[in-house]
Amino acid sequence: MRLGVAAVVAMVSAGVGMSTAHADDRHKDSVPITIYGDNNTVVYGDGNSIAGRDNLVGSGHTAGTGHDVGGPGAEDPGTPARPYGRVLVDSLFMRALPTTNSPALGTLKLGDEVGLACKVHGQPIDGNDLWYRLRADQVRWVSARYVQNYGDVPFCPSQPPGLSDEDLEPIEQDWNSVAPLG
Question: Which residues pair with 116 in a beta bridge?
Fold first, then answer.
């Protein structure tokens, strides 16, 4: 039988005889209890953390951001929710479609962190044909060749319409280029 993380937390809370009100009073003296299973970890006690498949996704120390702001595995409070990516080049085009033949819709800079919605096979750049769709108001794509992803990025339910054979021709780009890449 599988239980959800919330059910396990409730059982652990009940099992140690603490209500939510009492937990705060006894927090500093509590002993962490860790339960593992199916890519989830519950740590009840000092950690007060719930870890999901990709890392911490909640904690007793969050500010409603979904990120742990203290404790093991903590991320920067400004980091987007997983999956997200960090730009690896000085300047990277965001595109309307997953090809360098589509219009540029702006650029990202080295170190920028962006939320990733999903990925598709698009135009290969330096042998990498994956493109990430950004979590944004408008559809924007970036080449996975120039983005380090954090977390599991699922494949999109379908390929974007409007890609021609010419759009999918492989290209090589120079990482040392001063012009935006992708």
Answer: 134
How far does the chain reach from its first CA to its final CA, in angstroms?
47
Using an 8 Å Cβ cutoff, are 38 and 52 in contact? no
The count of other CB atoms within 10 Å of the CB of residue 4 is: 9
Please count the residues of the chain: 182
51's enclosing H/E stretch is strand 49-51
**Tokens encoding 57:** 């996704």
List alpha helices for the chain, DSSP H.
5-15, 20-26
Q: Is the dihedral of CA 117, 109, 122, 148 positive or negative?
A: negative
Instruction: Say what the pTM is.
Output: 0.59
Residues 151 and 55 sit within 8 Å (Cβ to Cβ):
yes
Tokens for 112?
Answer: 């920028």
How many whole angstroms separate alpha carbon 72 and alpha carbon 75? 9
Q: What is the pLDDT of residues 96-127, one digit of tens each?
A: 999 999 999 999 999 999 999 999 999 999 99
CA pair distance 43, 171, nearest whole angstrom: 48
Q: Report how far residue 94's alpha carbon sits from residue 102's, in angstroms, rounded to the nearest whole number.
A: 10
Residue 72 one-letter amino acid: P
Burial class (CB in 10 A: 0-12, 13-18, 19+), 19: exposed
Distance between CA 129 and CA 40 in Å, rounded?
A: 31
